[in-house]
Amino acid sequence: MTLETLNDDIIGCRKCKRLVNCCARAAADPPKRYAGQSYWGKPITGFGDPRARLLVLGLAPAAHGGNRTGRVFTGDRSGDWLYGALHRAGFANQAASTARDDGMMLTDAYVSVVVRCAPPGNAPSTTERDRCVKYLARELVLLTELRTVVALGGFAWDGLLLAAAAMKIAIPKPRPKFAHAATATVGPWRLFGSYHVSQQNTFTGRLTEAMLDDVFVKARVSL
After folding, report:
1. What whole-number distance in Å separates Cα of residue 189 and Cα of residue 150?
2. How do residues 24-47 score in pLDDT, each as one tens digit?
3. Given this model, what pLDDT does residue 1 score?
């Protein structure tokens, strides 16, 4: 198994009808700023350096972000925050994330999500999450150099723990709880928590650039 075959499986997945329909509806009725653009409208794969030691894990693609552009955390303000931080930390060659062909390259970092399709209200069901987390478990096996995971939000934190359990990796007891700047050791990985880079956190000041940068500084030190 390779990342290429895994990604083919992800893109071809149609197991969750609600999510398939959500992706299609977003593409059929885009906001005015994206009118006339061709939407990806399919499940999203991970992106980055296949020999990465750092994995950044999010919740799911945005309906008019990754679901539109075809690359995770690309084409929306959440992606601008994330790739800006990765650029400042030395993992990305540029801060902008606008399209799959914008020249973005990651070094020693890989970005992925727990759920591969844009969910209604940005809220996947537990059934949808549990179906999709199997792809994350396969991805973790293939990222053989991985040492550190930054989980963006509690959903990603829990998704990493679920994927680890599916891989028969023992979960620490008591079970690690998500918080911003929380850390835990899960199997071979050091896990860091960060508030998600969603606008509800960045616009309100719950997550600042300094807070996000601090997480990535600590993540880099752990590599």
Report:
1. 10
2. 999 999 999 999 999 999 999 999
3. 86
Rounded Cα–Cα distance for residues 63 and 45 (Å):
15
pLDDT of residue 177: 98
Rounded-to-integer distance, Cα 93 and Cα 58, Å: 20
Amino acid sitting at position 220: R
The residue to which tokens 């940068």 are assigned: 213
Distances (CA, A) of 113 to 30, 35, 48: 23, 26, 13
Structural Rg of the chain based on CA atoms: 16
Supply the pLDDT for residue 216: 98
The answer to whether residues 150 and 54 touch, using CB atoms and an 8 Å cutoff, is yes
Task: Give me the pLDDT at residue 88, please.
Answer: 98
Which CATH architecture does the domain made up of 3-222 adopt?
3-Layer(aba) Sandwich (3.40)
Cα gap 117→40, rounded to integer Å: 11
Question: Helices 126-142 and 154-166 meet at what angle, rounded to 10?
Answer: 60
- Positions in the chain short of pLDDT 70: none
Scanning the chain, the segments in alpha helix (DSSP H) are 3-12, 17-28, 66-69, 77-88, 126-142, 154-166, 199-202, 209-222
Task: Label residues 144-157 b or e (16+ Cβ within 10 Å = b).
Answer: eebbbbbbbbbbbb
Question: How many C-beta atoms surround the C-beta of residue 43 within 10 A?
Answer: 28
Residues 6+ apart with CB under 8 A from 125: 18, 119
